[in-house]
Write a structure and sequence with these properties.
- Residues 15-35 are annotated as: Disordered.
- Choline transporter.
- It comes from Ditylum brightwellii.
- Its main location: membrane.
- By secondary structure, this protein is an all-alpha fold.
- It folds into 2 domains: 39-65 and 75-109 and 181-212 and 225-261, no CATH class; 112-179.
- It has helices spanning 41-63, 83-109, 111-135, 139-159, 163-178, 182-212, 230-259; strands at residues 215-217, 223-225.
- The protein has a two-stranded antiparallel ribbon.
- The longest helix is centred in the last third of the chain and has 31 residues, at 182-212.
- The model is unreliable at 65-78 (pLDDT under 50).
């Protein structure tokens, strides 16, 4: 004890008795194979009811039109009245599919530098935004841009040392996807399904707005329309979010099931 050097570090640990350790020689490194079955029947039923309800709204109010309170056919509730909304939904969906395809190509090409590039671009673009705002005389926009630029710099500085680990994970994921390219077909299928759902939901919400909104003329002869019922809006947005989450999570577990094998 007298010869103990206090400058040496003290290491503490727990003694493990190997004689009581279970034999894991049969462990293959993979989990148990689970039997395929529906594990959330209640939410599956809610999904079917949700999609059927939206499709029913579109079928009754968005396509057939129905009749107004006066008994006349309401031309605005036919599908022709929603062409503008449908075109917008189709355009945004097509852009999303194209952008997803380009993003996947870029990701597979440069996974090693993608994280650093995106982080640097965030800092540069926020700085450009602040500079342009100040140059245009927009003081408020310039101050907001400067704050975002400062926060972006702080964030980049704080996470820069962790980028190699994140890059290694990204490269590993890209190699897993490239060795199972068939999963990209499932990804595009779910993207198309999400796009179709967005179009269907867009027609439904416009149809509900058209059917539930009443317009009357005031004493000055100006037509005043009431806002859509907030309860209907809440249910419609909940329906949209719920279905999109189901599609997204289904894709996630499909990819995880293929890559994790």
């Amino acid at each position: 004890m007298g010869n103990y050097d206090e400058s040496l570090p003290v290491v503490t640990g727990t003694v493990v008795n190997n004689s009581t350790k279970e034999d894991n020689s049969d462990f293959s490194g993979k989990g148990e194979k689970q039997t395929p079955k529906c594990r959330d029947p209640i939410f599956a039923l809610l999904l079917y009811i949700n999609v059927a309800a939206i499709a029913g709204v579109v079928g009754v109010y968005g396509v057939d039109g129905g009749t107004s309170d006066a008994g006349d056919t309401d031309e605005d509730t036919t599908i022709e009245g929603f062409e503008g909304y449908i075109y917008v939904a189709i355009a945004t969906g097509a852009f999303g599919l194209l952008f997803s395809a380009l993003s996947l190509m870029v990701l597979m090409r440069i996974p090693q530098i993608l994280i650093k590039t995106s982080l640097i671009m965030t800092v540069v673009l926020s700085g450009v935004w602040a500079a342009i705002a100040f140059a245009a005389g927009n003081l408020v926009g310039g101050i907001i841009g400067a704050i975002i630029f400062a926060l972006s710099c702080c964030y980049a500085y704080s996470v820069w040392s962790r980028i190699p680990f994140a890059t290694a994970n990204l490269v590993t994921a890209c190699k897993a996807v490239s060795s199972n390219c068939g999963i990209t077909i499932a990804a595009y299928f779910f993207a198309a399904l999400s796009f179709a759902w967005s179009v269907l939901w867009s027609v439904a919400i416009v149809a509900v707005q058209d059917r539930t909104t009443t317009c009357v003329e005031d004493e000055n002869g100006i037509e005043v329309c009431e806002s859509i019922n907030p309860g209907f809006l809440f249910l419609l947005f909940l329906s949209f979010f719920f279905t999109q989450q189901v599609i997204q999570n289904t894709l996630h577990v499909s990819v995880a099931g293929v890559v994790g094998k």
